[in-house]
Amino acid sequence: MSTLSPAIPTESQSSLTAAASDELVLCPHCDLVQYLPRLAEGEEAHCLRCQYQLDARQHNPIMRPALYAASALLMLLLANLFPFVSMAVAGNRSEIRFFDTSAVLFSEYQQVLAILVWLFIQAVPAFCMLAVIYLKAGMRYRLPARIWVARVLYMLKPWSMVDIFLMGLLISFVKLVATAEISLGMSFWAFCLFCLLHLRTFQVLDRHALWASIAPNPPPATEVMAGSTGLEQHLKLCHCCTAVLPLQQRHCSRCYTRVAARLPASLQKTLALLVTACVLYVPANLLPIMRTVSFGEVTDSTIISGFVLMWQDGEYPVAIIIFLASVVIPIVKIIVMFWLCYLAGTSKRVGGKHSGNIYRLVDWVGRWSMVDVLVVAFMAALVRFGLLASVYPGIGAVLFAAVVITTMLAAVSFDPRLLWDKQQPVSDKLFQYQAAEGISR
C-alpha cells in the first residue's frame, strides 16, 4: 500500500487548501492541525510530526469488510459445532469443543476466569464481526443506532484476543505432544480461518469512511490554519469519531460523546492503574498459575517455574515466548508507562516523537501477555483424566489476567498528546518543506 503524507499549507494558502481538501484533521497523538488530502484507493496518510496513521483508503470499502466479517462469523459457528481438539493418554481419550474452553472452567468454580476467556475469544470477536456487517449494511440502508454500534466496536476492538488464543494453542500443543497423542478436529481448522478472517476484517475497515457514512465531519466554526496544534487554535479532537470540535463544545455533534481537550486526569488514572498492576504482579508470580495432577501426584506451577521446566525440556522457542509474554512484557510495559508519565508531567521539553513511538509499541504489545492465561484455560479444558493426568487453573491465572487488563487500561488512560504539549511551536515553513519532500504515491 502506498503512502501519502498530508500537506501543511502556509497562512496565505490555508483557505484555498481547505476548500480543495476533503477533511480537516487533528492528530490524536500529537494534536497537530493538518488538512487531509484526497486519497486514492490503496493510499495512506500519516501525520508529518509523529508519523501516526491518520487515514487509509481501501478498495471497495463496503463489500470487502462485510464479506470478510460474514465469512469470519461462519467459521466461528463451525468452530463451535464440531470437535475442536482431542487428546489420548494411556488408552484414555479426552475430546473438547471450542466452547468447552470456558464452559469447563465455569463448572470447576473458576467463574471469573471462565467469563474472561469467553469474552476474549468468543463474545467480543463475534460482536465485532456483527457490528462490522451492521455498519456496512447501514452505509447503504441507513439502519438505526449506527453511532452506538460504531462507538462500541472501536471500544471493544483491543479486547478481541483470538490471535493470542491461537498462539496459546500452539504453545499448548508443544507442551502436550511429548506425552500424549493430539488430534485436531474440524473446528480447529475453522478457528484458524476465523482468526485470519477476523484480522483481515479490521485491516480493510476504513474508519474515516465509516464515520463519514454515518454523519459528515462538522466543519470548523472559525477559520483554521494548518501547521499548529489544536489547543493553540482552540480546537479539540473527538477520540471516538475523529471529529474536530471547538474547545468550548462539551459533546461531539456527530457521535454525541463527551469530549475534552485532554483526557481528564490522565496521569492520575494511569499512575493509579500502574500501581495496582504492580501490587497484583507480585502474588500473580508467587502463587500457582496451574496445578497438574499426574498419577496422583500434585504439582503447582508458577509462571517462572513453567518457563524453567520448558527450558529444561529443551523447548527453547516456546520457553522464550512464555518468558517474553509473561515476564518481560508486563515488567517493561509498567516501567515504560511510569517513565512516560514522568515525561508528560515534567516541566522539561521531551522528545515527543520517540516517546510517542514507544507508547504505541507498548500499547500494542501489552495484550500479548494474556497468552499464558489462555494456555492454562485451554489445557484445563483438555487435560481431564482424573488422577492419571489433569490440569487445573490456579489463583495466579486470575491475578495475572488482572495484571494484563490493568496495564491495558493504563495505556488507554494515558494521553500521548501530553508528551507533545511542551514542544516548541510548530513551524509552517518546516512542515511545508517536509510535505514537499515526503509526498509519495
Task: Please estimate the helix content.
Answer: 40-55%
Which band does the percent of strand residues land in?
Answer: 5-15%
Largest sheet: 3 strands, mixed
The number of domains: 3
CATH architecture of the largest domain: Up-down Bundle
Query: How many alpha or pi helices?
Result: 15
Question: What is the third-level CATH name, the topology of the largest domain?
Answer: Butyryl-CoA Dehydrogenase, subunit A, domain 3
In spatial order, strands of the major sheet run 1-4-5
- The chain-level structural class is alpha+beta
Give helix and strand order, one letter per element, not per position: EHEEEEHEEHHHHEHHEEHEEHHHHEHH
Uncertain runs with pLDDT below 50, 5 residues or more? Answer: 1-21, 427-441
Roughly how many Å apart are the termini?
A: 9 Å
What is the level 1 CATH name of the largest domain?
Mainly Alpha
What are the main properties of this structure?
3 domains, Butyryl-CoA Dehydrogenase, subunit A, domain 3, 441 residues, 15 helices, alpha+beta, 53% helix, three-stranded antiparallel β-sheet
Give a description of the structure:
The protein is of the alpha+beta class and 441 residues long. It has 3 domains: 2-57 and 217-254, no CATH class; 60-215, Butyryl-CoA Dehydrogenase, subunit A, domain 3, CATH 1.20.140; 265-420, Up-down Bundle (Butyryl-CoA Dehydrogenase, subunit A, domain 3), CATH 1.20.140. It has 15 helices and 13 strands. It has helices spanning 14-20, 63-81, 100-107, 111-141, 146-156, 162-176, 186-203, 207-214, 266-286, 303-312, 316-345, 352-365, 371-382, 395-413, 428-438, and strands at 2-4, 23-26, 33-36, 43-46, 53-56, 83-89, 92-97, 181-184, 235-237, 244-246, 290-294, 297-301, 389-393. The model is unreliable at 1-21 and 427-441 (pLDDT under 50).
